[in-house]
C-alpha cells in the first residue's frame, strides 16, 4: 500500500518522510491557494524535498477538454514521477482517455461514487481518488470505497484506489484494513494516527525506572 501526504506544506513532507515511508504528495487547487504560495513555489519546494522515486500529483484547473489536456501535459512535464489529477467531469473523462493514449500518469479525482471511479478505471486512469469524507454526505463513504475495491478486483481492472478526503484516522484505518492500493492523508490526520499519549507515558516509565536503578538515562 502507498501512503501519500495530501498537502502543499513541504516542511510537513520533510518531517513526516523522516519517520514514515511516504510514497508521494497530492495537492489540489484549494490546497495550493490556501498555502498562500504560487503553484510554481509549491512545485519547487516539493521537488526539493521529494526523492526522485516519490510521486507528486498536481491537478488540472481548466474545465474544458482542450484546456484540461494542456494543463495535464504541462503538469506531467515538470519532473519524473509526476502525475496529473483530472476531475471526472465529462470533459475530464474524455481527457483521461487521451492523456493515457499519450502515456501520461493520471489520477482521476473528485470522485463521489464507486461507479464514477469504475468508469475512470475503464478509461485507464492509474489512480482513482474517491473523496471518502465528502462521500459520507451522501451515504457510507468507507463502504463505497470497499465496494469499489471489490469491483476493480472482480473485473481485473488495474487502476489503484488512492482514497482521499479523510477527516479522521479511523476512516483511513478502515481502508488500510480493506487493502486499498493507496491513501492520501493530510499531515494533521497522519500525526493523530502516528502519535499516541500512551507511547510517551510508556517510554517515560522505562527511562525513569532505568535511571532510578543505574543512574543514567541511556543504555550505554
Ligand atoms: C486529494 O487528492 C483530494 O483533493 C483531497 O483529499 C480532498 O480533500 P478535502 O475533502 O479535504 O478537500
TrEMBL record:
Keywords carried by this UniProt record: Schiff base
Organism of this sequence: Olsenella absiana
Signal peptide range in chain numbering: none
Superkingdom: Bacteria
Subcellular location, principal: cytoplasm
Cell compartments where the protein resides: Cytoplasm
Matches recorded under InterPro entries: Aldolase_TIM, TAL/FSA, Transaldolase_AS, TSA/FSA_arc/bac
Pfam families associated with the record: TAL_FSA
Protein name, per record: Transaldolase family protein
